[in-house]
């Protein structure tokens, strides 16, 4: 895991944001099961993060015969965790 030198403000903001998470409706169906759509996750995260000055970006990395989704969570203080 990569992170900024300090993450105290980020950790406090994430704890508050996690308290704001809402259960997502599983309103899509496929392969014999129900699931929440990807855009619902994005909306839920933004709704919980924004009031606590949190944001995130995602990128794709390749190498070592693997493909990875990498998420960077940032706080307005400049603290971050990847």
Question: Would you kindly provide a written description of the structure presented here, covering whatever features stand out?
Answer:
With 82 residues, the chain is of the alpha+beta class. Helix content is 30%, strand content 34%. The protein has two helices and five strands. The strands form two sheets. Strands 3-4-5 form a three-stranded antiparallel sheet. Strands 1-2 form a two-stranded antiparallel sheet. Strand 1 (28-30) and strand 2 (33-35) form a beta hairpin. The radius of gyration is 15 Å and the shape is flat. The chain starts with 7 loop residues before the first helix and ends with a strand.
Strands side by side in the biggest sheet: 3-4-5
Strand content: 25-35%
Number of strands: 5
Element-level helix/strand string: HEEHEEE
Major β-sheet annotation: 3 strands, antiparallel
Poorly predicted spans: none
Summary of the model, kept short:
The protein is an alpha+beta fold. The chain contains 2 helices and 5 strands; from the N terminus they run H-E-E-H-E-E-E.
